[in-house]
Structure formats: structure tokens, C-alpha cells
Amino acid sequence: MIQDEPSAFSYQRVVFLSRDQVTSRLMLMADRSRETAMKIVAADFIRSCLEREQFPRHDLSEVAFVGRSNVGKSSLINSLLGRKRLAKVSGTPGKTRILNFFQVRTADLRLGSFYLVDLPGYGYARVSKSVRAQWGPMIEGYLTGRPCLRGILLLVDARGLERHDSTAFEWLREAARPLIVVATKVDKLTQSERRNRLSAIAETLSLPEACPLIPYSSITHEGRDELWRAIRDVLS
Known about the structure:
Blueprint: H1 19-31, E1 40-49, E2 62-67, H2 73-81, E3 99-106, E4 113-118, H3 129-145, E5 149-157, H4 163-172, E6 179-184, H5 191-204, E7 213-215, H6 224-235
Parallel strand pairs: 2-4, 2-5, 5-6, 6-7
Antiparallel strand pairs: 1-3, 3-4
């Protein structure tokens, strides 16, 4: 269950990102933007699960999407997969109370097929404490006890972090899975704002060098190729 107190950091070597390193990463992303985009052969919703016993059984790898209730998780999934309505976008943040499993088949020889798992959003005030208490054990059971889970994407709002984001990041590092931080809604920032906001995210989370920070827009699809590269790295 997500706790308010930060947990011990399990990396053996920690290198924090400076503002110049954040800028260098953004420049590298621009240089690599000419690479061939990921080709999605098929993307299908498989199952919604309330309990661990309902999780699908298969021999593929999984990547989990975690984020605040209003961070734009469903929109990012649709953008990433090139689908308009695969993941349902709700007008009421916090409505998703289940784990949603999607099977994705790509033309990439390294990546092949895998499962994308959309976890319930956290930190939304209108969701009762009893419901949030129910989510905790289910999410913890999945993240710590799912052998086929290969990586975790933590989605945060590029415009700024909230307390729950820092708490989630600290807790997710204990899951002993590769972690990718995705800064959503970057299209809402001007170019002059981006460097400062992304640097602030890296500094607040004490982001290790091994953990990618990828700015993303579900409107313009900026960052899609870079995010696919990061997913491929953790799954292949």
C-alpha cells in the first residue's frame, strides 16, 4: 500500500540529474526523432480485474501504467497505441477502480507482443477512503507479486508535482522493476517553461540517471517515439 513516508532507496549507485542534464536529454530526444515510429499490429482490451485471481495467465511481459487520477493516463495510452477509444477517457477523475489489461502486438522484432496494464489512479479526493484502502492491497499485490511485470511507468503532470506523486515514486522504487517517469500534458507549457518544470520534477523526485524522464503530449503525440524506445528497453 502506498505510504506517506518515503521508503529506502534500493539503487546501488545514484546519480541525480542537473538542469543541464535535463536539457541534454531533451536535445537527444530531438536528435533521435527521425527514427522509425513503432508499428502497432493489434491492440485489444482483454480484461478488467478486481482481484488477483482474475489476472490473465500468459507467458508475455507486462508494463504497468501508474499515475494520479487526473494525469491523463487513458489519453496517453490511446495516443501511444494510435487508438482513439481503446482506453476509456472519463470526465470524472478517479472513476477507474480496477486493473485493465490490454494486449499489444507490434511489428518490432525485439519487442513483439506484451501486455499493457492500466492501474487505478491515486490521490483523487472524491474517492472514498474505504475505496482507496481497497485499491492499495490490490495494486501492491500486482506490483510486488506479478512475475511477468517488467517495467513501471509513473505518469506525472509536467506542470507540477503533488505530494502523492513523490510518495508514489518512493514506493514504486521498492517494486524492484525498471521505472520510467512520463511528464504528461507538456503541450500546455511554453518552450521557456519546459526546462524549469522538468528540472523541478527531476530535482523533487531526486531522479536517478538510470530512470528516464520523458515529456509527453497526448494531443500532439510529442514524446511517443522516445517513450516507445524506453518501453522496448525494459521489455526486451
